[in-house]
Write a structure and sequence with these properties.
The structure holds four protein chains of four kinds.
Chain A lengths: L2 E6 L6 H17 L2 E6 L6 H13 L4 E4 L8 H9 L3 E5 L10 E4 L3 H14 L5 E7 L5 H13 L6 E8 L4 H14 L3 E6 L2 H13 L7 E4 L3 H10 L4 E4 L2 H16 L9 E3 L5 E3 L5 E3 L4 E4 L3 H5 L3
Parallel strand pairs in A: 1-2, 1-3, 3-4, 4-5, 5-13, 6-7, 6-8, 8-9
Antiparallel strand pairs in A: 10-14, 11-12
Helix pairs in contact in A: 1-9, 2-3, 4-5, 6-7, 7-8
Chain B lengths: L6 H20 L6 H26 L7 H18 L5 H25 L4 H20 L11 H5 L4 E2 L2 E2 H19 L1 H11 L1 H6 L4 H27 L10 H11 L11 H20 L7 H20 L8 H5 L1
Antiparallel strand pairs in B: 1-2
Chain C lengths: L17 H6 L2 H19 L6 H8 L3 H15 L7 H17 L4 H25 L4 H20 L13 H4 L1 E3 L2 E2 H19 L1 H11 L1 H6 L4 H27 L10 H11 L11 H20 L4 H30 L1
Antiparallel strand pairs in C: 1-2
The chains are: A alpha/beta, B mainly alpha, C mainly alpha, D alpha/beta.
The structure holds adenosine-5'-triphosphate (2 copies) and magnesium ion (2 copies).
One magnesium ion binds next to helix 1 of chain D.
Protein name (chain D): Rhamnose transport system ATP-binding protein
Family (chain D): Belongs to the ABC transporter superfamily.
Keywords (chain D): ATP-binding, Cell membrane, Membrane, Nucleotide-binding, Repeat, Sugar transport, Translocase, Transport
Chain lengths: 305, 325, 334, 498
C-alpha cells in the first residue's frame, strides 16, 4: 500500500510551487512507496486551503505538507487532521506551532533578511535610498524577512530604507506601486522585492521608466522569470533558495514522520540527499542558505525553474 | 465644449481638476505634464474597458466577465507569441480582438436567444473564462523572457510624444464616440436600455442590440487583454482578477445609469480618469496602503449619491407662479 | 346590484392543484440534480459516503447558505447586496479588536452581530434613505467595509479567541451534526416561514414585482427594504462569528469573494435575479448542490477552479435547459 | 373599392387564452374604420399583429392585395403600416426629435446620422400635428398629453398608407382631441386607410365611416356607421343590454366626513379647500396635467404638502404614507394602472388582498382561505373575466386589470375612496358595473372622490364638481347647475360669456 503525502501549496500555477512539486515527485520516485498529491486553492486564500485540507482529511492521506496562506487560520483544520492521525508539517510559509509537527524554513529568516539588504548594499558602495516592495500586507514570511532585514540595517552604512509598499502579489498593483516609489523618491537607488511576483513587476516598471542603471531591483525571484530583467540590466542580482530542493525535503521529512520519527526540539529529521534538519525550540528547522543569481549563472538556472 | 459635456460631466471634470490640485499641494510633481501623461497612459486600459462596459450597461445589461475575458485573451496572445514569435504583432492583436468579441458574443447569445438575465450569464462565464485559462495552461505562467521583444515593445513605443497605449485608447474613444452618437446601432443601445418595450415597437431588435453590445465589450476586452499582458510582461490565470468591479465603478462614477439608457462616452472616460488619478496618487502622497480600499469605496458611494442628486427629476411644475421662479 | 350582474361569472380559485404545480417546479428539478450529484459522488469516491466526511463537507456551504437566505429575500425584493463578504471581514475585525480589549465569548457574539447589523443599517440607509441603486451602493460599501478592516488591522492578525468561542465554528450539537449545520437548518425553517407564510414575505414579493404599486397599496416599501438589508447584515454577522470561530483568527482578507458564491447559490436556487420570484427551499437545495460539488471534486483532488467552471456551467445550463426544453416541446406541438 | 390592408382568418393564442380566432378585417383608403369591443376582445392584439409585434398563429395579411408577412415592427413600417399604440411607447431619456425618428433617422453621405436634418424634420412634423414642442428637449420634460402628441408625430413620420390608432384620445384633453379630429380628417383626405379603436361612442360617431365589432376574440359584426345606433353597437359588443351607463341613485347626503383646508405644495398646487360629505360623489374635473392626481396623491402621503390640514370625521389626521391612509380609511385608486396599480407577476388574489392583509391574516401569518374568499367576493362584484384567481394579473386585458385594481382598494372597506380616472380604457359594460358599484357604495354611506377627464362621466355621476386648473381650484358646481360648457370654460380658464 502506497503512502499518500499531500503537498499543499499557496495557489496552483505559481512557478515556484510547480518547481517544488518537481522535487516532491523526485522524492517519491526515490522512496518508491509514496504517492504525492499536489494540490492547493486557485487563489491565495486561507479559506481555499481549508477546503482542500478538509478533502485531504476525508481521503485519509498519511501526511500533509503545507505552505500556508495564513499562519493562524489553518490551525483548526490542521489540528483536526492531526487528531485523525495525519502527520502535518509546514514548509516555506509556516503555520502557528499548534497546527503542525514541525516547520521547514527554506532558509533561516535572519539569513534571508540579511541577504536581501546585502544584495542591495553590494551595488551601493556610497549608500543611498532603498525601498521595499512586499507582497500582501498579511503574508507571513515577507513580514518576518522585512523585520529581520530592519534589524541588521545598521550594519550597512548609508543605506536608508525609505518606504515599504505592498503590491499584493498582483502584477499590475506591484507595477503601479513601483511607479509611485520612483515618483515619490527621486533619489531612490534600489528596490528590494522579497516576492517573486513583485520583483518582476518592479523590474519592468524600472525599465519602462527609463531608470535602468539608476535603480537596481533586487530581492527574491525565480531565475526563469528574472532572466530577461537581468539581461536588461534592471536587476543586477537576486536570490532564492532552490524550490526543487524544498519540495524534495518537505516530502522526505513527511515520510520520515510517517515512518515513526518524532518531531521535538533537538530532533534531527532525514531529508534524503539534502542531509538532515535539526529542529529548534519551536520545532522549526532551516534547509539551506539562499543562493544568489546574477548575469553569470541566471541563464543556466532559468531552464530549470 | 459646454455642449459636448452634460452637467454631470462638467462636475466630474471639476472634481478631477480639484483632486489633481489637492494632490499637487502635497506632491507638486504630480501636475507636471509628463506625469499627467503617465497617469493617462496608466488609465488607458481601464478607459478601453469602461467604453465596452458602458455600451453594455446602456442596454440595461451588465458584463461581469470582462476582466476574465481580458485575462483569457491576454493569455492566448502570450501563448501565440511564445509559440510563434514570428507572427506579426498586429495579427496577434487582431486575433485576440476577434477572440474577445467571440467570447463576448457567447454572453450576447445567451442573453439574446435564451433570455437569461445578464448578471447570471456573465457571472457564469466569468468563472468559465478564468477556468478555461487554467485548463489551457494548467496554471502555468508565461513570463517576460518567453515573450518576444516586439510583443512587449508595442504599447510602450513612443508616437508623437505619447506611448502607443495612450494613442490606442484615444482611437477607441473616438471610434466609440462616433458609434454611439452617429450610428443607428449606437442610438439603439440607448433606446433598448431606456425602454426595451418601446424599442420593440420601434422596430429595434432588443436581443440583437444587446448581442452587439456584448460583442463590442468583448472585443475591447480582447484588445485590453493584449495590452495588459504586454505592458506588465506576464500572463497568468489571475491577471486582472476583480478588475470587473473597477470597470463598473468607473462607469458609475461617470454617471452611467445602472438601470440603462443614460450615459455617455465622456462620462465613461472621465469616470475612468477619476479612478486612475486616485489610484496613481495614493502611493505618491504616502497614504497608507491599507487606507486605499476604504478611500475608493467612499469615492464610489459619494459619486453615486452626487449623480443621483443631479439626476433627480426636477419635478413637473404645475403652478404658473412656481414656473417663473 | 343584482340586475346589473345578470351572469356573474364564478372564477375558480386555482386551475392547477398545488401538487401538480410542485411537480413542475424549479425545486423538483434541483432535487433531481442534487440526487444525481449525490449518486455520482458516491460512485466516484469511496470516501464520500462516510458520516464524518459528509459532516465535514457541510462546512463548505453552511456559512454561505445562511447569508444566501437573507440575500434571497433581498434579491426577490429586486435589490442586491454585494457587500456581505466585506461585512464578514469587518465583523470579524471588530470581534478581534474586542478580544484584545478583553471581551468574553457572549460579548464577542454581541459585537459580531452588532457590527453586522450596523453595516446592514448603513447599506439600508444609503439605499432606502437616499434612494440609490443597491448594486452600486454595495459595490462601494464592499470596498469601504473591507477597507476599514485593513485600516484597523493592517498587516496584523487577531488571534487568541477564548476557547469557548471555538464552539460556533467547530462544535457539534449531536453526533456528526455540527453547530453550524444546526444553525443552517434552523434558519432554513425560519426564512421559509418568513418568506412564504407571513405578510412580510408577501410584501417582499410585491415590492419585487412592482415597487410603486406596492407603495400605493400600503406596503411600507422603505421600511421593508431597510429590514432586508439589516437582515443580510445580521446574517453576515452570524456567518462571521461562525467563520472566525472556525478559523480561530482574523485577517482583513477573510472571506474574500464570498459574495459571488452567495449570489450564485441564490440564483441557482431559482430566485429570479430580476426580483419578484423564488423560494427558500430552492436555495437550500442549491446550497447542498454547491457543497456536494465542491466536496466531490475535492475528494478527487480536482483544482478549485475546475469546480467553479462546473458551477458556472451548472448555473447557466440549469436556467437554459428548461427554456430550451419548453421551446422544443412547443415545436413538437406545432 | 380595393382594401389597402386586408386580414383574413387571423388567429392568435396566448398560453391559456385564445385572443383572436379566425377574424377578418379590411381597411379602405380614405376611410376610417372603428374597431370596438369589450376589454380583452382582442383589439390591441390585432393591432400588434398588423404592426409586426406579434406573429399570428394562422391567417393571412394582404397589403394592396399581395400576401405579406411582418416578422418585425420595421417590416410593417416598410409596408406602409404605422400605429399609435394604446400605451405610449417612447423613450424618456432621448430627445423629442429622436423619439420621432428612431429607427429611420436621416443619414449623411457617410451613413452617419444627420442631426441637423433630423431636428428640422421633427419640427415640421410637430407643426403638422399642431403641437408646439421644441424637438431638441428631452421627452421626459414633456407633459403626458404632449408625449402623446409626439407618439402621433412619430406615427406620421413614416410615410404610411395605413394608420392605426389604439385609443388615441385616452390620454388627451379637449383641445388636443379636437386637433386630432382635424388631423384625421386631413389624413382621410390624403387617402389613408385609418383604423380607429375607442371605447367612447361620441368619438366613434364623430369620425368613423365604418365599424367592426369584436367579442371574445371573434368578429361579430361590421358595416357602415350611418346604418347603426349606439344601442345596437353596444348590444353587439356585450351580447346583451347594458342598461344604464350612469346609474346614479339619489342618496341622502350626510355630515362632512373629510375636510381639506389650506393644502399647498411649492410647485404643484395651492389653496385647496373643500369638504366631502357622507354618501357624496365629488367629481374633480380638469384638463390633463391640471394637478388633480398630484393633489390626490398628497392626500394619501405619496408626496408631502408644504402646508394644509385634513380632518376625518372631525379629527385632525396626519398621513405620511399610503399605509397610514389605508389604516385611516382613505384609499386612492391610482390612474396609472400598469405602474401604480396592478402588480404584474403576482396572481389576481394576491393583488386584491395586498392592502387588506391585516384583515385576512392572523398575527402576521397569511391565511390563504381568507384571501381567496375576499378576492372572490370583490372580483365577482366587478364582473371580472379571468380563468382563475391564481392567474397572473399580467395575463389579463387592460380593462380587466383595471377591475382587479379597483377591487383591491374596495376590499379594504374604506370610509373615503378616491378614484382617479376609474374607467380609463375600460369598456362600456364594465364602466356601467363600476359606476353602479360606486353608486351602491355611496348609498351605503361611503364618500367618493372621482377624478375624471370625461365630461359625460362627471355629469352622469357627480353630486358636486370641483374643477382644477394649473394647480388651483377654478370652479365649484352643484349637480343642479352643471353644464358641459361651464366645466370646459372653468378648466380652460376662459371667462364666462358676458
Ligand atoms: N402578452 C400576452 N400574454 C397573454 N395573454 C395576452 C397577452 N396579450 C393579450 N393577452 C390576452 O389576449 C386577450 C386580448 O387582449 P387585448 O389586449 O387584445 O384586448 P383589447 O381588446 O385591446 O382590450 P382593452 O380594451 O382592454 O385594451 C385578453 O384576454 C388578454 O388577456
Ligand atoms: N411631464 C410629465 N412627465 C411625466 N408624467 C406626467 C407628466 N405630465 C403628466 N404626467 C402624468 O400624468 C399625471 C398627471 O397628473 P396631474 O396631477 O398633474 O394632473 P391631472 O389633473 O390628474 O391630470 P390627469 O388627467 O393626467 O390625471 C401624472 O401623475 C403623471 O403620471
Ligand atoms: Mg387594448
Ligand atoms: Mg390624473
Amino acid at each position: 500500500e502506497n503512502k499518500k503525502i499531500a503537498l499543499v501549496v499557496k495557489a496552483l500555477g505559481i512557478g515556484f510551487f510547480e518547481a517544488a512539486n518537481k522535487g516532491a515527485q523526485e522524492a517519491a520516485k526515490e522512496l518508491g512507496d509514496v504517492e504525492v498529491i499536489y494540490t492547493g486553492p486557485t487563489t491565495t486564500t486561507a479559506e481555499g486551503q481549508i477546503e482542500v485540507i478538509n478533502s485531504l482529511i476525508a481521503q485519509k492521506v498519511d501526511a500533509i505538507a503545507v505552505s500556508a496562506n495564513d499562519t493562524d487560520a489553518l490551525v483548526p483544520a490542521l489540528k483536526k487532521a492531526m487528531e485523525r492521525g495525519i502527520k502535518v508539517i509546514s514548509w516555506d510559509s509556516g503555520v502557528a506551532k499548534e497546527g503542525r509537527l514541525m516547520h521547514l524554513n527554506p532558509s533561516s529568516s535572519p539569513l534571508i533578511g540579511n541577504m536581501i539588504i546585502k544584495l542591495a548594499a553590494d551595488q551601493l558602495p556610497d549608500g543611498g535610498d532603498v525601498a521595499v516592495l512586499s507582497a500582501t500586507a498579511t503574508s507571513t514570511n515577507q513580514n518576518v524577512w522585512i523585520e529581520e532585514m530592519k534589524k541588521v540595517q545598521g550594519n550597512y552604512k548609508g543605506i536608508n530604507v525609505v518606504a515599504t509598499v505592498y503590491g499584493d502579489d498582483l502584477a499590475d498593483k506591484s507595477y503601479r506601486e513601483t511607479q509611485g516609489l520612483i515618483q515619490s523618491y527621486p533619489n531612490l537607488k534600489a528596490i528590494i522585492a522579497p516576492t517573486s511576483v513583485g520583483i518582476v513587476a518592479a523590474a519592468q516598471a524600472v525599465e519602462d521608466a527609463g531608470k535602468v542603471g539608476q535603480i537596481n531591483v533586487t530581492g527574491l525571484g525565480l531565475p526563469s522569470e528574472m532572466a530577461g530583467h537581468v539581461k536588461a540590466g534592471s536587476s543586477k542580482s537576486f536570490a532564492i533558495w532552490n524550490p526543487i530542493d524544498l519540495g524534495y525535503s518537505a516530502t522526505m521529512i513527511a515520510y520520515d514522520l510517517i515512518g515513526g520519527a518524532e518531531a521535538k526540539p533537538g530532533a534531527e529529521l532525514k531529508m534524503g540527499r539534502m542531509g538532515t534538519v535539526k529542529l529548534d525550540d519551536n520545532n522549526e528547522g532551516a534547509m539551506a542558505d539562499p543562493f544568489v543569481y546574477d548575469a553569470k549563472n541566471v541563464e543556466e538556472f532559468a531552464k530549470i525553474f | 465644449m459646454a455642449k459636448l459635456l452634460k452637467n454631470r460631466e462638467i462636475l466630474l471634470v471639476l472634481a478631477i481638476i480639484a483632486l489633481v490640485f489637492a494632490i499637487a499641494l502635497r506632491f507638486p510633481g504630480f501636475v507636471a505634464p509628463a506625469n499627467l501623461a503617465r497617469v493617462y497612459n496608466d488609465t488607458s486600459i481601464l478607459i478601453i474597458l469602461a467604453l465596452g462596459q458602458m455600451a453594455v450597461i446602456l442596454t440595461r445589461c451588465i458584463d461581469l466577465s470582462m476582466a476574465a475575458n481580458l485575462a483569457l485573451c491576454g493569455m492566448v496572445a502570450a501563448m501565440i507569441n511564445a509559440a510563434f514569435p514570428g507572427v506579426p504583432i498586429p495579427l496577434v492583436i487582431l486575433a485576440v480582438v476577434a477572440l474577445g468579441a467571440a467570447l463576448g458574443s457567447i454572453n450576447g447569445l445567451l442573453v439574446w436567444k435564451l433570455d437569461i438575465p445578464p448578471i447570471v450569464v456573465t457571472l457564469g462565464t466569468l468563472t468559465i473564462f478564468r477556468g478555461m485559462i487554467f485548463l489551457l495552461t494548467n496554471g502555468a505562467w508565461i513570463n517576460a523572457h518567453q515573450m518576444s521583444d516586439a510583443f512587449k515593445a508595442l504599447p510602450r513605443a513612443p508616437l508623437i510624444g505619447f506611448p502607443v497605449l495612450s494613442w490606442l485608447s484615444i482611437v477607441a474613444i473616438a471610434a466609440v464616440y462616433i458609434l454611439m452618437t452617429r450610428t443607428p446601432v449606437g442610438r439603439a443601445f440607448f433606446a433598448v436600455g431606456g425602454n426595451p418595450h418601446a424599442a420593440v415597437y420601434t422596430g429595434i431588435d432588443v436581443g440583437r442590440t444587446r448581442f452587439l453590445a456584448y460583442c463590442l465589450s468583448g472585443g475591447l476586452a480582447g484588445l485590453a487583454g493584449y495590452l495588459w499582458v504586454s505592458r506588465y510582461a506576464v500572463a497568468y490565470v489571475d491577471i486582472a482578477a476583480g478588475f470587473e468591479l473597477d470597470i463598473i465603478a468607473a462607469c458609475v462614477i461617470g454617471g452611467i445609469s445602472i438601470a440603462g439608457g443614460i450615459g455617455s462616452v465622456g462620462g465613461a472616460v472621465l469616470g475612468s480618469l477619476f479612478l486612475g488619478v486616485i489610484k496613481n496618487a495614493l502611493p505618491v502622497i504616502n497614504i497608507s496602503p491599507f487606507a486605499q480600499l476604504a478611500i475608493s469605496g467612499t469615492v464610489i458611494i459619494i459619486a453615486v449619491a452626487v449623480n443621483a442628486r443631479t439626476e433627480k427629476r426636477k419635478g413637473r411644475v404645475i403652478l404658473k407662479k412656481a414656473e417663473a421662479v | 346590484m343584482a340586475e346589473l350582474n345578470l351572469s356573474p361569472r364564478v372564477i375558480p380559485d386555482r386551475l392547477q392543484s398545488r401538487g401538480s404545480r410542485a411537480l413542475k417546479s424549479w425545486e423538483s428539478l434541483l432535487l433531481v440534480v442534487a440526487v444525481l450529484i449525490f449518486a455520482i459522488n458516491s460512485f466516484a469516491s469511496p470516501y464520500f459516503l462516510d458520516p464524518w466526511n459528509l459532516s465535514d463537507a457541510t462546512f463548505n456551504f453552511t456559512e454561505k447558505a445562511m447569508i444566501a437566505f437573507a440575500m434571497a429575500l433581498v434579491i426577490i425584493a429586486g435589490e442586491i447586496d454585494l457587500s456581505v463578504a466585506s461585512i464578514i471581514a469587518l465583523s470579524s475585525t471588530a470581534m478581534g479588536l474586542a478580544v484584545t480589549m478583553g471581551a468574553d465569548t457572549p460579548m464577542l457574539v454581541v459585537v459580531g452581530l452588532g457590527t453586522g447589523l450596523l453595516c446592514g443599517a448603513v447599506n439600508g440607509l444609503l439605499i432606502t434613505g437616499l434612494g440609490l441603486p443597491s448594486i452600486v451602493v454595495t459595490i462601494g460599501t464592499m470596498s469601504l467595509f473591507r477597507g476599514l478592516s485593513f485600516i484597523i488591522l493592517g498587516d496584523q492578525a487577531y488571534t487568541g479567541y477564548p476557547a469557548s468561542f471555538a464552539y460556533f465554528g467547530q462544535g457539534y450539537v449531536w453526533w456528526v451534526f455540527s453547530f453550524e449545520f444546526a444553525l443552517f437548518a434552523v434558519f432554513a425553517v425560519i426564512y421559509s416561514v418568513l418568506l412564504h407564510k407571513t405578510n412580510f414575505g408577501r410584501a417582499v414579493y410585491a415590492i419585487g414585482n412592482n415597487q410603486t404599486a406596492a407603495l400605493f397599496s400600503g406596503v411600507r416599501v422603505g421600511r421593508v427594504k431597510f429590514i432586508l438589508f439589516l437582515l443580510t447584515g445580521l446574517m453576515a454577522g452570524i456567518a462571521s462569528i461562525c467563520l472566525t470561530s472556525r478559523l480561530g483568527s482574523t485577517r482583513p482578507s477573510i472571506a474574500l469573494g464570498v459574495e459571488l458564491e452567495v449570489v450564485t447559490m441564490v440564483v441557482l436556487g431559482g430566485v429570479s435575479i430580476l426580483g419578484g420570484s423564488g423560494t427558500i427551499p430552492g436555495v437550500v437545495l442549491a446550497a447542498f448542490i454547491m457543497g456536494m460539488v465542491t466536496f466531490g471534486f475535492g475528494l478527487l483532488n480536482v483544482p478549485g477552479i475546475v469546480m467553479s467552471i462546473f458551477i458556472g456551467v451548472l448555473l447557466i445550463s440549469v436556467i437554459a435547459l428548461p427554456i430550451l426544453w419548453a421551446r422544443a416541446r412547443r415545436r413538437v406541438a406545432h | 373599392m380595393k382594401p389597402a390592408v386586408a386580414l383574413e382568418g387571423i388567429s392568435k393564442s396566448f398560453p391559456g387564452v385564445k385572443a383572436l380566432s379566425d377574424v377578418s378585417l379590411a381597411l379602405y383608403p380614405g376611410s376610417v374604420t372603428a374597431l370596438i369591443g369589450e376589454n380583452g376582445a382582442g383589439k390591441s392584439t390585432l393591432v400588434k399583429i398588423l404592426t409586426g409585434i406579434y406573429q399570428p398563429d394562422g391567417g393571412t395579411i394582404r397589403v394592396d392585395g399581395e400576401e405579406t408577412h411582418f416578422p418585425t415592427a420595421l417590416s410593417a413600417a416598410h409596408a406602409g403600416v404605422t400605429a399609435i399604440h394604446q400605451e405610449t411607447v417612447l423613450f424618456d431619456e432621448l430627445s423629442v426629435a429622436e423619439n420621432i425618428f428612431l429607427g429611420h433617422a436621416p443619414r449623411n453621405r457617410f451613413g452617419l446620422i444627420d442631426w441637423k436634418k433630423l431636428n428640422g424634420n421633427a419640427r415640421d412634423l410637430l407643426r403638422r400635428v399642431g403641437a408646439e414642442i421644441d424637438p431638441t428637449i428631452r421627452l421626459r420634460d414633456l407633459g403626458i398629453a404632449n408625449k402623446h402628441m409626439v407618439a402621433i408625430a412619430r406615427a406620421l413620420s413614416i410615410d404610411a398608407s395605413v394608420v392605426i390608432m389604439d385609443e388615441p384620445t385616452a390620454a388627451l384633453s379637449h383641445k388636443e382631441i379636437h386637433e386630432l379630429y382635424e388631423l384625421i380628417d386631413r389624413l382621410k383626405a390624403d387617402g389613408k386607410a385609418i383604423l380607429f379603436i375607442s371605447h367612447k361612442f361620441d368619438e366613434i360617431f364623430r369620425i368613423a365611416d365604418r365599424y367592426t365589432v369584436f367579442r371574445d376574440g371573434g368578429m361579430v359584426g361590421e358595416g357602415l356607421i350611418s346604418d347603426v345606433t349606439q344601442d345596437q353597437l353596444v348590444k353587439m359588443m356585450v351580447g346583451r343590454d347594458v342598461g344604464q351607463v350612469f346609474p346614479k341613485v339619489d342618496v341622502a347626503i350626510g355630515e362632512p366626513v373629510l375636510t381639506v383646508s389650506g393644502y399647498r405644495h411649492p410647485t404643484e398646487f395651492e389653496d385647496i379647500n373643500f369638504e366631502l360629505r357622507r354618501g357624496e360623489i365629488l367629481g374633480f374635473y380638469g384638463l390633463i396635467g391640471a394637478g388633480r392626481s398630484e393633489f390626490m396623491q398628497s392626500l394619501i402621503g405619496i408626496t408631502r404638502p408644504s402646508a394644509g390640514a385634513i380632518k376625518l370625521n372631525g379629527d385632525v389626521l396626519v398621513i405620511r404614507s399610503p399605509a397610514e391612509a389605508i389604516q385611516a380609511g382613505i384609499v386612492y385608486v391610482p390612474e396609472e394602472r400598469g405602474r401604480q396599480g396592478a402588480i404584474i407577476g403576482l396572481p389576481i388574489f394576491q393583488n386584491v388582498t395586498l392592502p387588506s392583509l391585516q384583515k385576512t391574516s392572523r398575527a402576521g401569518f397569511l391565511k390563504l382561505a381568507n384571501e381567496f374568499a375576499l378576492a372572490r367576493e370583490y372580483t365577482q362584484r366587478l364582473d371580472l373575466r379571468a380563468a382563475s384567481l391564481d392567474q397572473d394579473v399580467g395575463t389579463l386585458s387592460g380593462g380587466n386589470q383595471q377591475k382587479v385594481v379597483i377591487a383591491k382598494w374596495l376590499a379594504t372597506q374604506p370610509k373615503v375612496i378616491i378614484l382617479d380616472e376609474p374607467t380609463k380604457g375600460i369598456d362600456i359594460g364594465s364602466k356601467a358595473a363600476v359606476h353602479a358599484f360606486m353608486s351602491e357604495l355611496a348609498g351605503q354611506g361611503l364618500s367618493v372622490i372621482m377624478v375624471s377627464s370625461e365630461i359625460p362621466e362627471i355629469m352622469g355621476m357627480a353630486d358636486r364638481v370641483i374643477v382644477m386648473r394649473e394647480g388651483r381650484i377654478a370652479g365649484r358646481f352643484e349637480r343642479s347647475e352643471l353644464t358641459a360648457e361651464k366645466l370646459v370654460r372653468a378648466a380652460a380658464g376662459i371667462a364666462e360669456a358676458a
